[in-house]
Amino acid sequence: MLDLSALLEALCAVVPDRRPGSPGNHAATDLVARTLTDLGWTVEMPAFPVVDWAGEPGQLTLDGRTWPVHPSPYGTGWSGTARLHAAGSEADLAGDHAGAILLLHGALTTGPLTPKGYPFYGSDRDTRIIDALEASGAAAVLAITGTAHGIAGAVDPFALIEDSAFTLPAGDLRRDAGGALLAVLAEHPQAVAELALPARRWPSTASNVLARRGDQSDRITVVAHVDTKPGTPGAIDNGTGVVVLLRVAELLADLPDDARPGVELLAMNGEDSHQAAGELDYLAATDLSRVRLAINVDGAGHRSGPTAYSTYGTPDDLDLAPLADHGLVEGPPWPQSDHMVFAMAGVPAIALTSSAMQALLVELVHSPHDTPDLTDPVLLEGAAQGIAALIRAQH
Ligand SMILES: [Zn+2]
Q1: Which residue of 46, 104, 176, 240 is most buried, as measured by CB atoms within 10 A?
Q2: What is the pTM of this model?
Q3: What is the domain class of 4-53+204-392 according to CATH?
Q4: Ligand 1 center to residue 177 CA distance, Å?
């Protein structure tokens, strides 16, 4: 039997982490593919281009005082001296900022800006701001952000712009540091600031991992994203989901080759990336009308309570008792993560996550604190048993 704790430890120990296209991400997808192959599944690893990134803590110095600056993930770096221009509104962006460091605050930094070309939704307001920044001639863009739990998880400061296509160097400051910096800038508006922002990005490749058994023309797809945000071990988000996926593979290893519905197991590589490259690659290659049901596991296994399930367009006669039989409870709707890739296309979907997800978004998700010791392997076993039983009940 698979050692679920050891698998989770291995997924969370890769270096630097599981950001798509990184060495750690390749180590993780290789581990998943090897485990599925060993369990007798037919495995494919379709590859696609992504942008990889590395950054380190930076700093800004003004009038002899220094503040930490966090490089925006997937942004470019910059080091040098320039005047600092504060901008708190869209109107402020219209001024002459050529060669300056723009310091965004207030109404401009209430939440992350939608990345350019994000495939699943857009915002006219965010597009206007991004366009104005890129046309400003500024040397770099810094944003005073803070937290935005629902969208950015437990990150402080969140990245205003997390976008490998954004053309300017970008970094972020926490609210306390940013407030002090604005006060010094107000006293010394002509002072020259010195910025050190070490970051760089480069092209790489990444892969989804797909394993199949039985009739694929009428199938159930079980999905868990294998990637992470930069800088998190990603135990709850979403090493646990991958471990559940692997355990489902083990529980269904005896499924006959002509099983109908068939089963597709998908380790998706892009849920936590603005590039969503794994999702787009899968959608381009897949006829979703062949998927009878999608089951997504993301954020499950936190030791604080049971695993929660929620449904999206599932038929009334789908019996969910196998989930309850294995300790899962019904939870609130959660219209995020990879089940929406299916639900938005009209495919019935089920999502599994921790019942404490709303608290985890504040305390844990996307942060360095998302470590394996916070998980309960009994919950992972229960989730896998529930999924496997629900699938077997369709045969
Ligand atoms: Zn996730």
Answers
A1: 240
A2: 0.95
A3: alpha beta
A4: 29
